[in-house]
Amino acid sequence: MTDPLIPAALAFRDNGTPFSPLYDDIYHSAVGGLEQAHHVFLLGNGLPGRWQNRRLFTVLETGFGMGINFVMTWAAWRADPSRCERLHFVSIEKHPFTVADLRKAVAATISDPEIAGLAESLANAWPMLVPGTHRLEFENGRVVLTLVFGDAQDSLPALRLRADAFYLDGFAPAKNPELWTPAIFKALARLAGEGATFATYSSAGEIKRALTQCGFEYRKVEGFGWKRAMLVGHFAPRWRVRRYEPPAPLALEERHAVVIGAGLAGCAVIERLAARGWRVTSLERHASVAQDASGNPAGVFHPMISRDDSVASRVTRAGFLYALQRWAALERFGHAPLRGGQGLLQIAADDEEARSISEAIAAFGYPSDYVTPISSNEARQLAGMPLARGGWFFPHGGWIDPASLCAAQCAAAGDLLDRRFGVEVGRIERSGAQWTVFDTAGAAVARAPVVVVASAHDAARIAGLQHAPTRSIRGQLTLLPSGTVPPLKMPVMGEGYAVPLADGTTLTGATYELDDLDTSLRAAGHLENVERVAQMLPAFAGVADHAQAADLAGRVAFRCVTSDRMPMIGQFADETLAARDAQRLRGAWPLDLPRTDGLFGAFAYGSRGLVWAALGAELITSQLEGEPWPLERDLAEDIDPARFLLRALRQGTVR
Q1: Was domain 11-235 assigned CATH 3.40.50.150?
Q2: Which of 203, 226, 533, 602 is deepest in the core (most CB within 10 A)?
Q3: Do the strands 132-138 and 143-149 form a parallel or antiparallel pair, or are they unpaired?
């Protein structure tokens, strides 16, 4: 279970230096924070020279603190005409500042106008203080900050990246020994790229011994300020120190991908690939984007709260926060999707659930800008009508038009996107370094080194997967015309949901019918939707009888779900090779599995496509590019499309 996130307590020494009462240590040298960052971490890692003329460069930092090292690295990157194409900065922080304290600390430390401007951009993008991985983009995505809020002892082993430089910058070993243990340096060694360098202000003997034991070579150099010496060095193991190599970019002749499916999953992949400069060919069987489940008039988005902070909750939290970032970026670039106002209410099923979830929110220490427990009276004020009971409020939840989001993502891809509609994909075939996509008539319709299958129910068939247990869930929506029910101020959900649309219509739904392929609207389905909502909102009671329900408008769509209700996101396993080597792979881990070159999946999003699609697209693109993954490795494994094959191998049922 995830530990609660405890924010940093900001204090200042008499000389004005930011100080941590918890660790009884300062955040930077009293001689100067900017100067320390430049001398110790930039010069200590040979920057900017080492990143010059490279496509990708990744810095990993232990201890984000005020973010001075990040903004100084960002400033050096901006000033370098030979800078790398993309700079990734990954940093772990157990006790992040609130945004208000971050601004105070920065104001007391940074006087340089340029650096202060970058620090202000950081503060404007500062994420909610909830555990997990937060990815922030600057410079149109060319500078990427991945913040991991959590304990380094747990977080470092969960990272999946190839580091080019390490900034070892926690509080002093005497004050914060947990950040300088051999286990920490062993975790760093697993992430080090060839020739990776490190720098730290400390030259303590236990650090030298831990570095040497884990394959790093060090040397003492002149320290900064009152420090006589500091350590710099590089990764040069004399023996094998890791089971798995860090991720590397997929070897490609051209950066071109075919994306099959143009719903929420596929369009998110299109936008993320194009943002990296990929040329994308989109194949869609319908005449336009978002025609299947993604074509509903609106969808709600919100985090998921559970008593044990389950895998589903953690993945949904990461996806929700990342989706908000991406949608805001689309709006800044003039590709705004249609969205409702901020705020969504989730109503408890009963008093016991209201109590237990409120206790979970308090136990995890979630901030009020993430979620807030509310009474029935408070819920009434927010919704604008009486509710059966209280629940919890998501200030940044709401509704969005999925088709407008898909259109915005395709528009952002610009000239890099080649759209082809009315293409029914039959199969794919690998030849050399290329995939060929054939339609159902057997004609070749596209070729590329990479294929991303994002076609929901058809994905497993197209990819030829045997171990992909997906099922279809029929969902019927009901549209209540303006004036039928009192107007809601914001979406309300629980056993069902009610969404006030921009035209005054209220959307309710949705039925949940397993393996029912009937596409026709049913009066019984409309009644079921309205009755479920009436259990939360008494004003909806008696809105329609069976005769009236038959005349209501609505829509039927089919959700694609897996047996464990988690999505399928990532590179496909080579099931044929795995079957040939099934005995050896019985004890395998996900990274042991043979993978199919250039073949990825993004499907089985169920009813959570809005909160999973952007994060899934970023994960796939990061895997292709050899970039740091945007979420923890254990969570990526829980949504890995190869997980069902892995289970079958462990059970000895693969033949």
Answers
A1: yes
A2: 602
A3: antiparallel
CA distance 494 to 346: 5
Convert 184-197 into a string of H (helix), E (strand) and C (coil): HHHHHHHHEEEEEE
- The pTM score is 0.97
In three-state form (DSSP H/G/I as H, E/B as E, the rest C), the secondary structure along 300-330 is EECCCCCCCCCHHHHHHHHHHHHHHHHHHHH
The three-state (H, E, C) secondary structure of 389-443, written as one string: CCEEEECCCEEECHHHHHHHHHHHHHHHEEEEECCCEEEEEEECCEEEEEECCCC
Q: Are strands 279-284 and 256-260 parallel, antiparallel or unpaired?
A: parallel
Please give the radius of gyration of the chain, using alpha carbons only, rounded to the nearest integer: 26
Quick one: CA dihedral 638, 642, 644, 649, positive or negative? Answer: negative
Pick the CATH number of 470-562 from 3.90.79.10, 3.30.9.10, 3.40.50.450, 3.40.50.300: 3.30.9.10
Q: Is 83 helix (H, G, I), strand (E, B) or coil?
A: coil
Kindly indicate the confidence band of residue 243, based on its pLDDT and cuts at 50, 70 and 90.
Answer: confident
Please count the other Cβ atoms lying within 10 Å of the Cβ belonging to residue 314: 23
Per-residue model confidence as pLDDT tens digits over 91-119: 999 999 999 999 999 999 999 999 999 99
- Token digits for 176? 């914060």
Residues of the chain with CATH 3.30.9.10: 470-562
546: pLDDT strictly greater than 80: no
| The CATH number of the domain covering residues in 256-292+403-468+564-651 | 3.50.50.60
Question: With bands split at pLDDT 50, 70 and 90, how would you rate the model's confidence at 547?
Answer: low
* Cβ neighbours of residue 415 closer than 8 Å, sequence gap 6 or more: none
At 3 the pLDDT is: 80
Query: Residues 247-287: pLDDT tens digits?
Result: 999 999 899 999 999 999 999 999 999 999 999 999 999 99
Q: For CATH 3.50.50.60, list the domain ranges present in the chain.
A: 256-292+403-468+564-651
